[in-house]
Design a protein that fits this description.
Blueprint: E1 2-7, E2 15-20, E3 28-38, H1 40-46, E4 56-57, E5 61-69, E6 81-84, H2 94-97, E7 116-118, E8 124-125, E9 137-141, E10 145-147, H3 154-157, H4 163-174, E11 182-186, H5 190-202, E12 206-211, H6 217-223, E13 227-230, H7 235-241, E14 248-253, H8 258-266, E15 268-276, H9 290-296, E16 299-302, H10 310-322, E17 332-336, H11 341-349, E18 355-359
Parallel strand pairs: 11-12, 11-14, 12-13, 14-15, 15-16, 17-18
Antiparallel strand pairs: 1-2, 1-4, 2-7, 3-5, 3-9, 3-18, 5-6, 6-10, 7-8
Helix pairs in contact: 4-5
């Protein structure tokens, strides 16, 4: 038996309880978690913004050590450090054939499987976003694990599984920020902090962080922000004032709210680019009129998992870490236990802190 955070039903509180894991079957890997990040996507599963089969063990951003492997698994072995990949590509669907592996049609196919059982009554449990990282140990499909980068502690490497790939990819793959361009980042949570660091690595000349909380300014500036704006009804105007009345070249929205997406779009210059990373609900409707779309010539794009291919992007990120350009510890504002995940959810709802990291 291992302890895990179980979502019994949408809208219900998490339950920290014992679960029974099977030994890994063919093509599976059992992992002892070192750490797992508490991401807003996990919160979106609890309230139904994103839907997966329940009851489920949540958690999708993690790293750990291989305990055992099933038949046919050759790329990792017991004792290896690994990073969890919650959205593995199938390599066969239309998106994968185009090289757009982050849009794989079957990426979440594993979330519907029964992967464990509750110890108390033997009831079936699903693996949330494929990997069930909010547990002391987990069993995942082999394509959900990647070798951890050499020289990166596993407790730091956990953040590579979502926040860092998403923030880095938003800047380098989706918005394609060029040296000297100006960037605005809306939302200074874990993904926002990673996005700020990525903008600095890309050589952005001005990096403006926007958040509702004044308490996050120091965090943002440590990550690379040159300016900080408290979100309000005049945010777009303030950003234009900081950029010679032009607006930024690129805005990255990490919140997932209609008003923030609209403000990010309005904050860019004529011909500017807005990348939406935040996951909003169906009730969040963003509106534009036809004339302004023509006149401003701006681009608005969604961004899934940073438009990344983890297998190729992790080595790039590892080199940035080893060279000191990317500081994973700067994303973490709280180290917590498994039992404290519900409190970390409350902090996210309140807009407090960066990434909370569960330490096992």
């Amino acid at each position: 038996m291992v302890r895990a955070a179980v979502l019994p039903a949408v809208g219900s509180p998490l339950e920290i309880t014992g679960i029974d894991l099977p030994e890994p079957g063919p093509g599976q890997v059992r992992i002892k978690l070192a750490a797992a990040g508490v991401c807003h996507s996990d919160l979106s599963l609890t309230d139904g913004t994103m839907r997966v089969p329940v009851p489920a063990v949540l958690g999708h951003e993690g790293a750990g050590t291989v305990v055992s492997v099933g038949d046919g698994v050759t790329h990792v072995a017991p004792g290896d450090g690994v990073v969890l990949n919650w959205a593995p590509s199938c390599g066969r669907c239309h998106a994968c054939s185009l090289g757009e592996v982050w849009l794989c049609a079957d990426a979440l196919a594993g979330a519907g499987a029964v992967y464990a059982r509750r110890s108390s009554d033997g009831s079936d449990l699903h693996p949330g976003l494929n990997v069930a990282a909010f547990a002391e140990e987990t069993v995942v499909a082999a394509d959900c694990v990647l070798p951890a980068p050499a020289g990166v502690p596993l407790t730091d490497a956990a953040l590579l599984g979502c926040a860092v790939l998403t923030g880095y990819g938003a800047i380098h793959h989706s918005a394609r920020v060029r040296a000297g361009e100006t960037v605005a980042v809306f939302g200074v949570g874990g993904v926002g902090l990673a996005t700020l660091q990525a903008a600095r690595i890309a050589g952005a000349s001005k990096i403006i962080a926007i958040d509702v909380s004044a308490a996050k300014e120091e965090l943002a500036r440590q990550a690379g922000a040159t300016d900080y704006v408290i979100a309000s009804g005049t945010t777009a105007r303030e950003i234009r004032a900081l950029t010679g009345k032009q607006g930024v070249d690129v805005a990255v929205e990490c919140v997932g709210r209609a008003v923030t997406i609209r403000t990010a779009w309005e904050s860019t210059r004529r011909g500017g680019r807005t990348t939406v990373v935040g996951i909003g609900g169906k009730d969040q409707q963003v509106t534009f009129n036809a004339l302004e779309i023509f006149h401003w010539g701006r681009t608005l794009a969604g961004c899934v998992y940073g438009n990344c291919d983890p297998a190729t992007d992790l080595p790039v990120l590892a080199e940035h870490i080893r060279a000191g350009r990317l500081d994973l510890s700067a994303l973490v504002t709280e180290h917590i236990t498994l039992d404290e995940i519900p409190s970390a959810f409350d902090a996210m709802v309140a807009g407090k802190g960066g990434r909370a990291l569960v330490m096992f």
